[in-house]
């Protein structure tokens, strides 16, 4: 009979352990829902911050010259920054509206350009690009993602408008 009691106590102990583990797992799902709601509130906060971006003015020829003369310094100055590029002309508009390229007016730096990625979900941006033409002067607003001496600048395009 002693072995029977010990066996029963062992089974009860295992059941208690399973119950404790189950209750801990159930508590974790509550934390996940709180985490999800905080994530969604932070994404709505970041979308309102995106609308309030402050763009630093940058002349297209200066950007290109800096990238050619010292790409490391240009990378340090412009990467991960929001800029308003003034004085550029459209070099190419991709037929699928995935990107467009902007060139400067200085013939000494004609090989370097600014490649602007277009968000396919942004209908207003796509509509504004459809109104533009090659070689047209534009002002570009965006976020610099890459800088190099050969490829120039990669920019996530936020807005583009015909120069006045």
What secondary-structure arrangement, pairings included, does this model have?
Elements lengths: L1 H50 L4 E4 H10 L1 H8 L3 E12 L5 E5 L10 E4 L5 H8 L6 E12 L3 E11 L2
Parallel strand pairs: 1-2, 4-6
Antiparallel strand pairs: 2-3, 2-5, 3-4, 5-6
How does this structure look, described?
With 164 residues, the protein is α/β, with parallel strands linked by helices. It is built from 4 helices and 6 strands. It has helices spanning 2-51, 60-69, 71-78, 123-130, and strands at residues 56-59, 82-93, 99-103, 114-117, 137-148, 152-162. Strands 2-3-4-6-5 form a 5-stranded mixed β-barrel. Strand 5 and strand 6 (152-162) form a beta hairpin. Helix 2 crosses helix 3 (71-78). It is extended, with a radius of gyration of 28 Å. The termini are far apart. Mean pLDDT is 80; it is low at 27-44.
């Amino acid at each position: 009979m002693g072995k029977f009691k010990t066996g029963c106590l062992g089974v009860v102990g295992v059941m208690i352990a399973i119950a404790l583990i189950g209750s801990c797992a159930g508590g974790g799902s509550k934390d996940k829902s709180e985490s999800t709601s905080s994530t969604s509130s932070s994404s709505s906060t970041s979308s309102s911050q995106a609308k309030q971006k402050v763009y630093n003015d940058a002349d297209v020829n200066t950007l290109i010259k800096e990238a050619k003369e010292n790409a490391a310094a240009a990378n340090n100055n412009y990467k991960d920054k929001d800029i308003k590029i003034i004085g550029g002309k459209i070099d190419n508009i991709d037929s699928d509206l995935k990107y467009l390229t902007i060139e400067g007016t200085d013939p000494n730096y004609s090989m370097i350009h600014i490649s602007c990625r277009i968000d396919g979900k942004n209908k207003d941006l796509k509509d504004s690009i459809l109104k533009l033409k090659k070689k047209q002067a534009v002002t570009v607003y965006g976020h610099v993602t890459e800088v190099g001496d050969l490829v120039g600048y990669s920019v996530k395009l936020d807005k583009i408008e015909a120069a006045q």
